Amino acid sequence: MKLAMIGLGKMGMNMARRLMQGSHEIIAYDLSKEAVEEIAAQGASGADSLQQVVEMLSAPRIVWIMLPAGKPVEDTINQLKELLSSEDIIIDGGNTYYKDDLRRFETLKTEGIHYMDVGVSGGIWGLQVGYCMMMGGAKKIFKYLEPIFQDLAPKDGYLYCGKAGAGHFVKMVHNGIEYALMQAYGEGFEILDASEFSESFDYAKIAHMWNQGSVIRSWLLELAEVAFNKSEELTDITGYVEDSGEGRWTVQQAVDTAVPAEVITISLMRRFRSRQQDPFTDRVLSALRREFGGHAVVATKK
């Protein structure tokens, strides 16, 4: 099939490459001319504007957006809405909030333009092993686009989840679970590192061993092994941990539906904590212990 890939970052670039490996014809566009030139040298047709993207596609046009959620996606869709025709298709494969999908689906529907939300997981390894994908939108559009999904995903690696918003909703919860899993691994390795046995531990070997039939084996644990092989004590990085939104949305959804998602919530709060140095909360705790019990405190350095 012929389609456009808008956004050639870490995900979009490799997705375009994998689609070309599946004999799909790619029209590529990005604000970075260097990125467009790079993928064009590998067989894609480069475009230098959204107008040119639309002109190079055949009806019904398929435009896949792989951009950061929020304003970049919103601005791109607003521009495409003025350029596309009835029966054309927009796919948002970024980490968009599902409520934005509901609004965009209805807005584009009035123009006769189809919209699908596709949650994509796979990171930088997707080119090699395939992308796990979760789709929301009209089922007939999903069926029309299925050859694209088949070539992007590994076997059984994609699923039609339901009406508009369902794909990104499932991906949101997926990422919330990811937060909790990562937090559990991090805490486990910290307990190992704080023990009396830590001098004899090889964390890469422990991660590798746990992946051989253990109930906690996972791809994340494989990546932990890779990371520990690069730096045994991870001294090459700091403990500052960002979040990209999905964890927050998952926790908010849990609040809205009264689901007691304690572990996911704590993992999100821990990410916030990782960005603080000498947090005010801890200073309050220390001060209270000093006041009610005369406990020792560590004074600040002058």
Q: Can you describe this structure in just a few lines?
A:
The chain is of the alpha/beta class and 302 residues long. The protein has helices spanning 10-21, 33-40, 50-56, 71-83, 98-109, 126-129, 139-152, 166-193, 203-210, 219-230, 246-256, 262-274, 280-293; strands spanning 2-6, 25-29, 45-46, 62-65, 89-92, 114-121, 132-136, 158-162. The longest helix has 28 residues, at 166-193.
Layout of secondary structure:
Layout: E1 2-6, H1 10-21, E2 25-29, H2 33-40, E3 45-46, H3 50-56, E4 62-65, H4 71-83, E5 89-92, H5 98-109, E6 114-121, H6 126-129, E7 132-136, H7 139-152, E8 158-162, H8 166-193, H9 203-210, H10 219-230, H11 246-256, H12 262-274, H13 280-293
Parallel strand pairs: 1-2, 1-4, 2-3, 4-5, 5-6, 7-8
Antiparallel strand pairs: 6-7
Helix pairs in contact: 8-11, 8-12, 9-10
What does this structure look like?
The structure is a single chain. Helix content is 52%, strand content 13%. It is built from 13 helices and 8 strands. An 8-stranded mixed sheet has the order 3-2-1-4-5-6-7-8, sandwiched between helices.
Which structural traits does this protein have?
about 300 residues; alpha/beta; eight-stranded mixed sheet; 8 strands; about 15% strand; elongated
> How does the overall form come out from the CA principal axes?
elongated
The mean pLDDT is 95
N- to C-terminal separation?
66 Å
Strand order of the largest sheet: 3-2-1-4-5-6-7-8
Tell me the total number of β-strands: 8
SSE pattern, N- to C-terminal? EHEHEHEHEHEHEHEHHHHHH
Unreliable parts: none
